[in-house]
Amino acid sequence: MSPLLENTLEALRIGVGFLWTAAWAIIMGLTVTSLVQVYVSKERMAAVLGSGDLDGLAKATLFGAASSGCSFGAVAIGKGLFKKGAHAVNVLAFMFASTNLIVELGLMILILLGWEFLVAELLGGLVLIAVMAGIVHLTLPESLFAEVRETLAERDREHGVTEDPTCGMAGSDEYTITTDDGETLQFCSEGCMETYRQQTTAAGGWRADLQSWGGWYRLANQYRKEWSMIWTDVVAGFLVSGFVIVFVPQWVWNALFLQGDGLLVTAENAVMGVAIAVVSFVGSMGNVPFAVALWGGGVSFAGVIAFVYADLITIPVLNVYRKYYGWTVMLYIFGVFFVTMAFTGFLMEELFSALDVVPNLAGGQTATEQTYFELNYTFYLNILAVALSGFLLYVYRRGLGAPGEYRDPVCGMRADESDPAATHRDETFHFCSSTCKRAFETDPEEYAAHGPMASAGGHDHAH
Q1: If residue 428 lies in a helix (H) or strand (E), which one and from where to where?
Q2: Do 386 and 408 sit in the same domain of this protein?
Q3: Chain-centre distance of CA 8, in angstroms?
């Protein structure tokens, strides 16, 4: 076998091995994130983030931590919040929290890099927000951001851009509902449109929801959307990390990152870690396996953790800022984020060095020495995680209506003639479960107004 082919197979083994090692954590983390997204109300988010004080900053951090882990998703949601009146510092804090303080990212870092990096990620996420807020409050061009907000709203009005009421992303003419009040609503996907129909029908809290197919559908649909936003970055990050580990020689890392001790070395490593993240094109959670490659190449703790922080200023994400806000604001965000990320990486290494908890790379196995596919706890957790994904996929497909002739009047889930049914005033209603049927029979007048039929097309009336 040629050396090139042998090295390529080894790179694939490492990349797929990393993915196998972290798969259950990603799936479980996305499930928790989806639960929070579906059942934590965010209707008044923009209103409560309108203030630039400490209270608004804290709420932005909490909302972000309960949000999606996708860099592009965070930027898109941040744009919507900004357009509706959220203060610029809170929008930026939301974006930091939603890409640094989320469950699935923490689990990946813990598994692939260790608890020290997890602590640095969580503590550093809070430091990032505090440092960024301080810089923005000192330098924010208020008039520029006010002008950009007005321009953004005007541009969206001129182009007929509407926001999906379910998720806040841009709506599409393909998925449209006209309500009984005559309002036209646009959705980003069939899944969000179906979720809206169910939400306008459903009654009861999250406990009642999770006793019906409708509630599980909303979770499944959010889970599907979370995956759709990050899967390319995740897969690319794992595969690229394998090739970087095998094919990038050690002298490259030695040339880019200063070796030795001292404040200057730590500072240079932190700055270089952010710089490499900018040009890596790997965002979201995909930069974690890439960080493993940097760590294996001997890059310092400051350089690696600064790299992990910097997924909000990769070149593709910077281009999105430019499209949304223009060149001036994009450059302002880039400058604030770069300084914040590099300084926080520097600070984490100095703090961890003072506490003597910087991890020792020499004490562990290298990526090429590890055996990834064994009959151990990872195998069994991955089996459970894949089974959970399969169940949520089944629920999602069931909810989109094949054959969706009827709609459960209690939870909004689609049903067919083989499901439980009840008759009220000579009209037959079908239910997704016996739980929804019992709820209907307890108070049929409350639910009968929704009607038994499910529209097959994209245009219908929502109650």
Answers
A1: strand 427-430
A2: no
A3: 31
Q: How far is CA 132 from CA 26, 67, 120, 311, 342, in A?
A: 28, 19, 17, 15, 11
Residues 159 and 252: their CA atoms lie apart, in Å, by 47
**Burial class of residue 136 in the structure, from the number of CB atoms within 10 Å of its CB (0-12 exposed, 13-18 middle, 19+ buried):** buried
Together in a domain, 266 and 381: yes
Domain boundary among 335, 358, 391: 391
Regarding whether 340 and 193 lie in a shared domain, the answer is no
Peptide bond into 359 cis (omega under 30): no
Read off the pLDDT of each residue in 336-357 and give the average, rounded to a whole number: 95
Angle at 95 between CA 92 and CA 100, to 5 degrees: 125
Give the DSSP per-residue string, 26-93.
HHHHHHHHHHHHHHS--TTHHHHT---SHHHHHHHHHHHHTS---HHHHHHHHHHHHHTT--HHHHHH
Report which of 49, 182, 66 is spatially closest to residue 462, judged by C-alpha positions.
182
Q: The tokens 């321009």 sit on which residue?
A: 151
Are 294 and 376 found together in one domain? yes
% helix, strand, coil for the chain, step of 5: 65, 5, 25
Is the pTM of the predicted complex or chain greater than 0.85?
no
Total of domains in the chain: 2
For residue 53, what are the domain limits? 3-140+214-391
| 21 and 110 co-located in one domain | yes
Phi, then psi, of 173 in degrees rounded to 5: -60, -25
Pairing between strand 427-430 and 421-424?
A: antiparallel
One domain, residues 9 and 118: yes
User: pLDDT by residue (tens digit) across 261-296?
Assistant: 899 999 999 999 999 999 876 666 778 888 888 888
